[in-house]
Amino acid sequence: MASLFVPAKGGAWDIRVVGVFALCVLLFALLQLTPKQYRKYVIQFVTLIAGLYYALEFFWPISHVTGPTKGEAEGNFLTPSMEQISDWLTIIAAFTVGLGVINLSMVHSKRLTKGGNTAFNSLVFFLATLAMVVVGVLKKSHPNSLTSNLYQILFDGALTTLDATMFSIIAFYIVSASYRAFRVRSTEATILLITAVVVMLGQIAVGQALTRGIHSSTLQVLHFEVVRDWILTLANAAAVRAIGFGLGIGGLAVALRIWLGLERGSYFDGQG
Amino acid sequence: MSLSSYLDAHVLHIVPWVGAICTLGLYSVLYKENKIFRFFEHLFLGLATGYMIATTWNDVLLPKWWTPFHDEGKWWLAFALAAGALYYLIYSKKYNWMARMIIGLFLGASAGQQFQIFVNDVWPQIYKSFKPLVPHAAIAAASGHPAIKAVTTSDAINNIIFMVILLCVMSYFFFSFEQKNSFLKGTAKSGRWLMMFTFGAIFGSTIMARLALLIDRMDFLLNDFGSDAFGDNGPKIVLVGLLALTGLVLYLGLKKGGDDPGADVV
User: Fold this and answer.
1) Based on the domain organization, do B62 and B20 belong to the same domain?
2) Interatomic CA distance for residues A59 and A76, integer angstroms
3) Average per-residue pLDDT in chain B?
4) Distances, alpha carbon A19 to alpha carbons A28, A149, A187, B66, B79, in Å
5) Nearest partner of B98 among A93, A36, A21, A258, judged by Cα
6) How many Cβ pairs closer than 8 A exist between chain A and B?
7) Rounded to the nearest 5°, which phi and psi values hold at B25?
8) Chain A residue with minimal CA distance to B72?
9) Distance (Å, rounded) from C-alpha A204 to C-alpha A215?
10) N or C terminus of chain A with fewer C-beta within 10 Å?
């Protein structure tokens, strides 16, 4: 089996690649013959096998094994292939980048062909995407001062700035959100806002100056920065940990349902 | 003068100018929705999309797939392309069930990894949650047992508070059965209140993070851009300009009738 997967060059490479694609087309054609009512079982089988690999790798007893890249390590017979499988999954997942691009392109090409007020903005979107792709890829493949300078203008000058500005705009709207939360007047909203105010006051010099007048060593625990630290390291940490336990157990339950094909819904029950 | 040599000479001036124009362009939405904001919004979207494509190619597909596949002759990596292509069958009515197959592969892999994630992330936290609740003096190391730090009264009180919060919040997450027991109802209700401390702390930290970004943008406009564009007096000139702009926006907002200028964007 190992002798089959030997790197090839020139014509031999071309033949093998064409062979792989032909094999895949044949396999997909055969899969398409699966009756509609059984297709969900094919999907469940693929899901089960993919999960089984990681589950077995985790639960199988460990011993000393020799991996392809890291040499001697602790693991079981599945451990040496972990890195390769992770690489394969990363590569396959990377191909999904096109899905988002296709989606955006469909929306903006429709606007562009329709004309009107939004057409110009869609053109800007396409030009900006193209410019960043070309400059970003050329910077890596043909590094020179031109690509480096253009990348600096597009990335440092425009993208980073636009990103930071877009998120800083939220600072203005958060004030409006706080006001709306205050209007609810429930115990929960009051606790939330008092904690938020104390945390913020404990973090800024003005807030710390407000309680600097408290000199008594017993009452120094009332300094905003001390209260803030206590909230973040104790009250907050305990609640976050409990939420984490809930999330962890919930995640595990959902993972088991997905892995064993018990989950229901449009994705799992669809027959294609 | 070629483009390359022009950029070599001026790139350090172009970058702050581009940054300032982009910053002010996006901030124009604080007055109201307008064409300038829409232009910079689409520019941001386009650049971010392009950056994502370029990064995926440069950091993942080029080193992990194209170079071994094409340059090193590892022809079997063509299978990865075929598997990745399955995702695109989602656009076909006839074959889209095959796209669900590759999505299933990733769901299954993620589900399998959950065991490891749970044990690595959650178990150590469960272990560390068992804190000493009774004050005691330091205990010296004995054969086979490490030394144990002293627990002061205040440590013990903090640990008790920690345990109470932990148990109350956890009791809120008991969804497996109906909470009819009055004690459980009480702890679950306290758990909800205690969670508000966390959400308040997160909310406060988020506000501070956003304000830090806003301060950073102002710092950029006043110092980086101001000094580059107008020399030593640049920060003062930009400050006057920004104040004038803010005044103009406030004047126009008040003239309009006191409507929330940004309400249509939230």
Assistant:
1) yes
2) 9
3) 87
4) 14, 43, 68, 18, 10
5) A36
6) 411
7) -60, -45
8) A7
9) 19
10) N
Mean pLDDT of B223-248: 84
CA A209 to chain B, closest CA, distance in angstroms equals 17
Contact residues on chain B for A140, CB-CB shorter than 8 A:
54, 58, 62
Q: Report helix, strand or coil for B100.
A: helix
Please compute the mean of the pLDDT values over residues B65-85 and round it to a whole number. 93
Domain span at residue B38 reads 12-72
Beta bridge partners of B100: none
Q: Are residues B46 and B95 in the same domain?
A: no
Structure confidence at residue A177 (pLDDT): 77
Pairing label, strands A71-75, A63-67:
antiparallel
What was the pLDDT predicted at B264? 46
Distance, CA of B249 to CA of B254 (rounded, Å): 9
The residue type of A48 is L
Same domain for B34 and B53? yes
Residues B60 and B104 in one domain: no
**CB–CB of A200 and B207 under 8 A?**
yes
For residue A69, pLDDT beyond 80: no
ipTM: 0.85
Q: What is the largest CA-CA distance in chain B?
A: 82
Are residues B123 and B82 part of one domain?
yes
CA–CA gap between residue B73 and residue A10 (Å, rounded): 9
Nearest residue on chain B to A189, judged by CA atoms?
Answer: B196
Task: Give Cα separations from A227 to A9, A208, A223, B154 (angstroms).
Answer: 68, 11, 6, 15
Assess if residue B249 is contained within a domain. no
Phi, psi torsion values for B140, nearest 5 degrees: -70, 155
pTM: 0.84
The interface residues of chain A toward chain B in range 18-47, judged by CB-CB distance below 8 A, are 20-21, 24, 28, 31-32, 39, 42-44, 46-47
Asked if A193 and A181 count as a contact pair (C-beta separation under 8 A), the reply is: yes
Domain count, chain B: 2
pLDDT in tens, A5-37: 888 888 899 999 999 999 999 999 999 998 988
Is B15:A153 a contact under the CB 8 Å cutoff? Answer: yes
Residue B37 lies in a domain: yes
Q: Which of residues 95-124 of A touch B (CB under 8 A)?
A: 95-102, 104, 118, 120-122, 124
Q: Six-digit token pair at B177?
A: 């059965």
Cα A123 to Cα A113: distance, rounded to the nearest angstrom: 10
A245 Cβ partners below 8 Å, 6+ apart? B122, B125, B126, B170, B173
Check whether residue B115 and residue B90 sit in a common domain.
yes
Question: pLDDT value at position A267?
Answer: 64
Q: Is the pLDDT of residue A219 over 90?
A: no
